[in-house]
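Structure catalogue
Derive tokens from sequence
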Amino acid sequence: MVGESKPGVFFVDQAAGNKEVSTSTEVEKKLSFTLDPGQTRYVRTVIGLGFFVGRVYPELVDDATGQKEVEDASYIGPPLRQAAKAEAKAQ
């Protein structure tokens, strides 16, 4: 598991290979895709109506849409290598 899907959150630095994004409420939904070396892919989670609770659906979006939506998001993973290097140089 990479992390939890929350509004305005994104994850980075995944190794190349076959990926599966799964969501689960009263129903489990899965999205499978291949991430090539150096490639960026964007997966959005959308909440739809369910019988008892909302259902969360993962969907692959194009680069332009993904880039635009990431601009307003917050990074919650471990420090990025580039950011860590820049911070070390500044000290």
In short: The radius of gyration is 15 Å. The chain has one domain: 9-90.
